[in-house]
Prior knowledge:
A: alpha+beta, B: alpha/beta, 7 helices
Amino acid sequence: xxxxxxxxxxxxxxxxxxxxxxxxxxxxxxxxxxxxxxxxxxxxxxxxxxxxxxxxxxxxxxxxxxxxxxxxxxxxxxxxxxxxxxxxxxxxxxxxxxxxxxxxxxxxxxxxxxxxxxxxxxxxxxxxxxxxxxxxxxxxxxxxxxxxxxxxxxxxxxxxxxxxxxxxxxxxxxxxxxxxxxxxxxxxxxxxxxxxxxxxxxxxxxxxxxxxxxxxxxxxxxxxxxxxxxxxxxxxxxxxxxxxxxxxxxxxxxxxxxxxxxxxxxxxxxxxxxxxxxxxxxxxx
Amino acid sequence: xxxxxxxxxxxxxxxxxxxxxxxxxxxxxxxxxxxxxxxxxxxxxxxxxxxxxxxxxxxxxxxxxxxxxxxxxxxxxxxxxxxxxxxxxxxxxxxxxxxxxxxxxxxxxxxxxxxxxxxxxxxxxxxxxxxxxxxxxxxxxxxxxxxxxxxxxxxxxxxxxxxxxxxxxxxxxxxxxxxxxxxxxxxxxxxxxxxxxxxxxxxxxxxxxxxxxxxxxxxxxxxxxx
Lengths: 285, 226
């Protein structure tokens, strides 16, 4: 093990400036991958927060008795899609209107035209637009209901946005993973090239394949480890700057992500090194 | 008089082809343990092909190559490193590692074969003493003369106690005085019972030292002197 580590370290050292570039390439690739991962994670968290706000407004007819409103409310509460219900009387509706659209608009009229309503929050989970529509349909024909606003366009847009960003994220993630593996494989090739003479001697004096593979695998893994370690450090460095510009999508790396990047870098480094070694052994033979 | 116990290298009906072209055709020869053999011939490729067969870098297209207890028909890939520990090779360009000292170059051959640190130190010192390079153990190859570099290469080839020592044109970079000295080293090695095979095109060496000479000509091997 002593020999393996020493030779691996020597291999890394002898790559010189090329080795530094290799590690930087690995670090940059993993940074891009980690960054994308964190953006998708933050995006999903944001989407979940927005999903939790999916609501439908059930407008009530004027002069509906409180018993009928209560009956409607109980009917809604019985549905599993409903996460919560809030009653909003005409005064509260006017207040909300004022806060959104400014003073005077409602006050200019002789009476408050805004209806009382029940604001129904849809419980978070899969397929919220479909469930929101289902709730709306179930009460649309109720005698106390004037109309229902499902906010369908907004909910559908949100679902669509989440779906598209997840697909783009997955595609980009896959591409970055390949790019990362490719970069690491080329980066570690420099190390193998720098050790070509030693590799030739090892084979000729009777080093076993296991010894040769261990030395070069550990060398590549070391490069990958350093690159993987740099990636979350760079993310942490960038994140305050990013937070000012895009506050909803934080890129501060979590411990799990940092650990994952280090492990990924190490594994990719070893695999890349083995791939390069394979090519080199074929060339030498 | 030398006592030859058994063939250490045996080639039976060996044929080697490279890119469809025959390099060696129907080669049959035996080299016994403790023999000193010159391998001559005008074509570098043929000598190299034979060396590659002996270290099992290549396998014959047909026929059988046997080295020690291994033969080309039965050897497993995992046995090849074991076989190579029994065959020391001195290359024409020495193939020394320039960023390692003389001592490290020799020790490297032991380290990568899993020898203990204590034994490495002892064996390295002993072998460097044998080739009269102990005083240069901390020097780097680039600071040595061609003759000294050749001795480092010989020390590295011998440090694993091989049965056979192959040397490819060892006198290629040496003057006549150094050539005499290095031949004396090879003879000393041979006296220990190690089979020495020297590839050379230097007919003067062949004439000066009365040894068995195998000539590679027209894709076959023939004995021209004993």
